[in-house]
Amino acid sequence: MNILSNPVSPGSKTKRKRRSPPIDNDLPSSSTDLLVPKVEPQPLAYPIPLINTQNPVTWNVNDVCSYLNQSGCSFALKTIQEQEIDGAALLLLDDLPKVQDLLEFKLGPAVKFCHVVEQLRTQVIDTFHSSPSLKTPSRLSTTNTS
Asked: What's the gap between Cα 53 and its chain centre?
């Protein structure tokens, strides 16, 4: 017998029925019946604490450490104490490469630290300074100031 030969003779017209997968009647009948669950934004593991009435520019090293600890940056406390970073110095630490280099943080902790500092800086400007000239323009701004 030839392996390539067809066991069904060419004259017979036997059709095989295709089997379709079983239909699940629990599914919606149209795409408009589909329910898409709403995804609520999750709060940060450590919400940025609100500053008290004392301006962070006047904070000492212990005040800075307390704030960073509440903000989830406890990894930075030893370095902040060793480098004697007070509130005014903290608010100047906004550049990720500088934070990584000067404070010797790895990328992940440095990003978190810079985010906390940026949030604090925004609170300081909004709380203690009403002058628009104190608010720094975005680095992505395309407006020409000349």
From this structure: 29
Residues 6 or more apart in contact with residue 91 via CB below 8 angstroms: 56, 57, 117, 120, 121, 124
Higher per-residue pLDDT: 84 or 15: 84
Q: Give me the number of domains the chain comprises.
A: 1
CB 91 within 8 A of CB 67: no
Given pLDDT bands bounded at 50, 70 and 90, which one contains residue 44? very low
Instruction: Name the phi and psi angles at 98, rounded to 5.
Output: -65, -45
Neighbours of 94 (CB within 10 A): 13
The CATH number of residue 112's host domain is 1.10.150.50
Q: Provide the token pair at 79.
A: 């370095």
pLDDT in tens, 88-119: 999 999 899 999 999 999 999 999 999 999 99
Residue 120 lies inside a defined structural domain of this protein: yes
Which domain does 98 fall in, by range? Answer: 60-132
Instruction: For residue 125, report the phi and psi dihedrals to the nearest 5 degrees.
Output: -65, -45
